[in-house]
Write a structure and sequence with these properties.
single chain; alpha+beta; two-stranded antiparallel ribbon; 2 helices; 23% helix; 18% strand; globular; disordered N terminus
């Protein structure tokens, strides 16, 4: 999936399969900042080594499993050329997905939030 040469801000999302397609993520390890943890998780789950934008894109409070308590989640964005090859974790395929296409994930509100943030980034970069 995806269109080589188009960065995330122009309409591509990198995702991996975990109860549907979701952006890479995970826990912050001891001694890491949330941004450092997000960068590490991006690399571990997709093989993409990228700098993240400095500010979180969104903060959420949600449970990631029916038996787990809700936790604070911070999501960051990286602008990466979608021709960048992906090297997914075993058992968790990764793919580039055009933002205009629908995808099934475990958090139904995520696609509209991700699309809105991509529009915000495009608007900010045009200034």
């Amino acid at each position: 999936m995806g269109h080589p040469g188009r960065p995330l801000g122009d309409g591509e999302l990198i995702g991996h399969r975990w109860r549907g397609w979701v952006p890479p993520g995970g826990r912050v390890e001891p001694g890491e900042t949330p941004r450092e943890g997000a960068r590490r998780e991006l690399f571990e789950e997709t093989g993409v080594a990228a700098e993240l934008l400095p500010e979180p894109a969104v903060a959420t409070v949600r449970s990631y499993h029916p038996r787990w308590p809700a936790t604070l989640g911070l999501s960051y964005v990286a602008i990466v050329d979608s021709s960048t090859p992906l090297n997914a974790e075993s058992g968790q395929p990764a793919a580039w997905t055009p933002l205009h296409e629908d995808w099934a994930g475990c958090f139904p509100e995520d696609p509209s939030r991700i699309r809105a943030h991509a529009r915000f980034l495009r608007g900010s970069s045009a200034r």
